[in-house]
Amino acid sequence: MTAEKIFKNPKNLKRRKFINSLMIFLCFVAAVLTILPLLYIFIYTTQSGISALNIDFFTQLPKPVGEEGGGMANAIVGSGILIGLGGLIGIPIGIMSGIYIAEYSKSFLAGAIKFTTDVLSGVPSIVVGIFAYGVVVLAMQSFSAIAGGFALGILMIPTVTKITEEMLRLVPHSLREASLALGVSRWKTTVKVVLKTASSGIITGVLLAIARAAGETAPLLFTAFGNSFWQTSIDQPIAALPLQIFVYAISPYEDWHRQAWAGAFVLIFMVFIVNFLVRYVTRNKFG
Amino acid sequence: MTIEKLNVNDDINSAESDALVESEDNSDDQVKQKNSVVTNNLFVYFNKRPAIIDISVKIKKNSVTAVIGPSGCGKSTFLRSLNMMHEMTPSAKVFGEIYINGESIMNFNMVDLRKKVGMVFQKPNPFPTMSIFDNVAAGFKLDGSGNKNELNEIVEKNLINAGLWDEVKDRLKTPALSLSGGQQQRLCIARTIAVNPEIVLMDEPTSALDPVSSSKIEELIYRLKSEFTIIIVTHNMQQAARVSDQTAFFYLGKLIEISRTRKMFTNPKEKLTEEYITGKFG
């Protein structure tokens, strides 16, 4: 049958149009289904969490059971410190190894690194926590923010490496040549042309890695450990939002449950802010 | 209009044409000194497969040399060996001698060589993250040299030189990608000549452009000849005839013939050259 015949046959055409709209509809349903859980989580957490949310929540330490009020100020600050330490370890290593794989290594080493990175991104986060326990906590003889940051950093590395590599590969070869042909050295070309051209994509990846690490609980259980008091020195056990939520949520006290919801709300809100930051940074780019 | 002007030039050239042909009794050193680019027995291999074979040419200062030949004959490979672009390709091996203004390129480091030997590519490739101004100043800005006043001057001078100033002077801070393809290519030429090279290599600079933009670039090449030595790879034989003083014909990695453009297109020495330029193959 020629194309013309197919086109002129009204029955066939009707069927094809029907299948077409059906498929588009199914795609639409799938799209809605991906949004629904997110909306549900967001609405439910807001409803349950917002009632316990007040200024105290952001400024006060947790109160002992039975006392009214109290907050999670230490956990919010602790999470900030942990993510900061994690980023300090994970982002430079991730970006640099991404640069190495994409720009400098044509050997089997690049393949090995890529494979290892893929495996690392599939390692359960609690295993990474155990690793950090073995390497940092045992060596320091104490739970600490450093150990927690170390674990979060290791979790960030594969994401950042992969995104950096992919974004650098998207930079056209002609730009590297343009820069080199101007008599610009290789490393300046890499940093000022290649990395800069890929920067919005890499920033997206970095922020997503941060958002991911912000919600991690398992790797902090036996590294940062948690703390009910103010603690900002990084060689001491430190509080973190996900840990605090975990402890409060499994407690039998109604009061703590509400605080856990509020904590969850704050955590989601922080991740949301990071995501909006992503959109802002990527949209506000040149060209 | 362009063609007329260029024809006039051709006539002038034919008057002094003998000067372009090297007299054979020059000593080796003198040959190297006198010419902008000299290659002796140049071979380039990719994965042990030869891409260009035994190329020996002499290219005079302030002349335009066109390199023609069918696809895959090694024109670009030849061009890219002159500014050591093959260093980026691990599988490429270059043998033979190349002299730039009498000095072997083995004595240069790559960065210095490429400042002397600039390159314009087939597809316009302005830096997408930079403005028009920054693109022209890129050779300095990426290198971290040049102060603000100097750069203002350099950018204006080279945009004028590339014939782009009037079109972009009101929007120097806008992204380079907002320009049309032909403008982008002239921007790339401005960027290349801004670092003040002695030799400008052009790898099919007009093949991605429309005829009007192409003729602008050809005029530009003609004008730039007074300041730079230009080597241009082209698939367009009319273009080679219009812009160049001498033409080299490559076939299957070998240099078949190099002679004055007028002679090449009217009375070529080799049969193969004649067949190629009359369109019998290729």
User: Tell me, what's the shape of chain B?
Assistant: globular
Largest interface by residue count? A-B, 24 and 33 residues
Major beta sheet summary of chain A: none
Mean pLDDT of chain A: 88
User: Count of helices of chain B?
Assistant: 13
Quantity of strands of chain B, as a count: 10
Name the helicity range of chain B.
25-40%
Distance between the termini of chain A: 48 Å
**How many angstroms does the end-to-end distance of chain B come to?**
30 Å
Tell me the structural class of chain A: mainly alpha
Give the domain tally of chain A. 1
Sheet with most strands: strand arrangement of chain B: 6-7-8-3-9-10
Shape of chain A: flat
Order of helices and strands of chain A: HHHHHHHHHHHHH
Radius of gyration of chain A: 25 Å
Q: Could you state the CATH homologous superfamily of chain A?
A: MetI-like
CATH fold topology of chain A:
MetI-like fold
How would you portray this structure in words?
- Chain A is 77% helix and 0% strand.
- Chain A is mainly α.
- Chain A has a single domain (73-281), classed as Orthogonal Bundle (MetI-like fold).
- Chain A is flat, with a radius of gyration of 25 Å.
- In chain A, 38% of the residues are buried.
- Chain B has 282 residues and is an alpha/beta fold.
- Chain B is built from 13 helices and 10 strands.
- Chain B has helices spanning 2-15, 28-34, 75-82, 110-116, 132-136, 138-141, 148-161, 165-168, 181-194, 211-224, 237-243, 261-266, 271-277, and strands at 35-46, 49-60, 64-68, 92-100, 103-104, 117-120, 199-203, 229-233, 246-251, 254-260.
- In chain B, strands 6-7-8-3-9-10 form a 6-stranded mixed sheet, with helices on both faces. In chain B, strands 2-1-4-5 form a 4-stranded antiparallel sheet.
- In chain B, strand 7, helix 10 and strand 8 (229-233) form a beta-alpha-beta unit.
- Chain B is globular and about 55 Å long.
- Chains A and B meet through helix 8 and helix 9 of A and helix 4 and helix 9 of B.
